[in-house]
Amino acid sequence: MNVLKEGWKKAVNSVKEHPWLLVLLILLQIAVFVSVLTIIIVYPVKILQNVEGIMTTMQNVNYNVTSIQAGSSFASSQDLLTVYNSYNDLIKNITAFLSWSLGVLLILQAGIWIFTNRLFVKKTEKFNFWGELKRFGMSWCKYLLITLVLFLLPAVVFYFIINSLFTLQLEDSVLFVVQLLSVVFLIIYYFSLVGFSLLTLPWKEFFKNFIRISFKKIHWNLLVLIINSIFIGVFVYLIYLTVTLDQHYWLTVLASIILIPLLTLLRIFWVGCVQSMLNPTHTIPLTGASHEKNLN
């Protein structure tokens, strides 16, 4: 259990060395939670209302060919205006939904992973603002690369695959494809978690260790993921139990609040375990000038 022990040790030491970063991570996790909850509650409802407005109006139009040929109008100007406005609102809300979701992914969620990695950077006597800014920028570029390659591009490909199946009227194959894509998503998610845990490494070491740890250390990675999943699963189940208790909603609120720091600590533990596979005593200096060259 060397990886688990080293990962736990690195996680504890990093939190002790950078307590304010832990506070920042919890605040960022709260911001992500509130943002995602708001996006999920607000925009799907608005989009459904826009679709319902279009469908309701279209049910009232004149589809009788004979009547139209006789001079009756297909739809009143008011109906056409309603459909036009609903369609514009639909496009606006879909755009806002995607924009806010992308903002959470590329800003808040990126900040969580970057500052989690920053926890494991060894403190030095002198703080260099521009060095920190440069490190943050390079880490964000790696985060963006992983997100584009492992999430956005496959999502576009999957969309066109499913759309093609519907176009070719191969609905029977859609369920199989969805199941297959679910497995592919889990694989992609695994690789992304490894990549997101190595953001502070230089580019050359990043790619080399990403490949090595993803494949050669997969047994350790899966073990840590199982441990984290058990913690999260048990806690989510406890939240579910509190929801079933009448007149005890405060327990649900309290459990949900506790879940946020739990997710933060489990993420720190995951990154600590992944970085312990670089070298059991590996630390990343603040200046980034003296990275160890003898990585496994």
Structural topology:
Layout: H1 2-17, H2 19-59, H3 65-69, H4 77-118, E1 121-122, H5 129-167, H6 171-196, H7 203-216, H8 218-244, H9 249-276, E2 284-285
Parallel strand pairs: 1-2
Helix pairs in contact: 1-9, 2-4, 2-9, 4-5, 5-6, 6-7, 8-9
Describe this entry's structure for a reader:
It is a single chain. With about 300 residues, the chain is mainly alpha-helical. The protein has a domain at about 20-120. It has helices spanning about 1-15, 20-60, 65-70, 75-120, 130-165, 170-195, 205-215, 220-245, 250-275; strands spanning about 120, 285. A two-stranded parallel sheet has the order 1-2. α5 runs antiparallel to α6 and α8 (about 220-245) packs antiparallel against α9 (about 250-275). The chain is elongated and about 85 Å long.
